[in-house]
Amino acid sequence: MWELIEANRRKSLILFFSLGLTLLLLGYFFGSAYYPDGGGFIGMFFAFVIWGILSLISYFSGSKILLAVSGAKEVTKEVHPQLFNIVEEMKISASLPAMPKVYIINEAAPNAFATGVKPENSAVAVTAGLLARLNRDELQGVVAHEVSHIVNRDVLFMTFAGIMLGSIVLISEVFLRSLWFGGGRYTSKSSKSSGQGQMIIMIVAIVFAILAPILAQLLYFAISRKREYLADASAVRYTRYPEGLASALEKIANSTEELKTANKVTAPMYIANPLKPKGQKLSNLTSTHPPISERVRILRSMSGGANYIDYQNAFNKIKKSNLPIIPSSGLADQTTIGLKEASITPVTLGLNKQTKRDTGDIMMKVNNYSFIDCSCGLKIKIPPDFQKTELFCPRCGRKHNLNS
Question: Catalytic residue numbers?
Fold first, then answer.
């Protein structure tokens, strides 16, 4: 498994330096466009400084920022014991050195992500909508997928690649806006004969400012898609139950709820791309992730076992290609890992009344509400700032003592 992580890390470094080179070229062209005499190197210096500052912030505080931006709240085992139990199981199965922290996002849209630059200091965040929709096997599949990202060091790579992409977009935006508001003025100490050369550099800089963010984003998303396949394969290895993850993805794909806290930088971190036009299903989107229907078909075609070679064979069968998704070191392991017997459960589509009620209850638990089950069948929800020592059921009038 360590060889698999190393192969993943090498590819990450190639992408990392490719994006870094793009960033430095961006700084060079922008600097040259404004100051032909040595401005290119000044631009590279500022691009490097911006990237360095953002990288330091992301390394030391990236996880906290990501969780805060996503509206995730760290919860105790009492809030959702089943989720904690599953995270503990996957921590053991994946041989993680420490238990990931558990967060819940108060959103009705079903989704999840993992964060943390080191396996020793990681976190798994799931939405309340996901917890309300999935059964235990499905939730285990999703958590296993997220733990796989932690084990494969995808979280570290995605954090830095995302920051690099953000730096490229930021610098390009600043340059283009400065042209717009500054009327295209630039400084030149050159003779008239060199004026045309500077104009060419300006045109190249504008083209680069438009194309660089697009190319960087395409490269970033392409690697992101490949990592999703690898995390699916690892999740099956941990759970030995591909149907659990397949069924979970199917439910997530049929969601039409909007994940309001997601954005372009955080989208690749989720198990399914959360960015979509209002009312559209997630299964229709492929920009940051492989098509969910394709991932489901690959998982459901696994019949020989739960090892990486079995996932690669299923991938080749569905895609009708020999594109290597699993590094050769992972495919070299021919150990037979048996699949857990499938238990067919009906897939509930949409957001029914019970799911809405369960989602609301989970959100209230996250916000420290307490619950009383009255004998008349009504579940009374008590806010954390409720000061009285007793209350009466609004349905049957029964008195409940809150100190007992």
Answer: 146
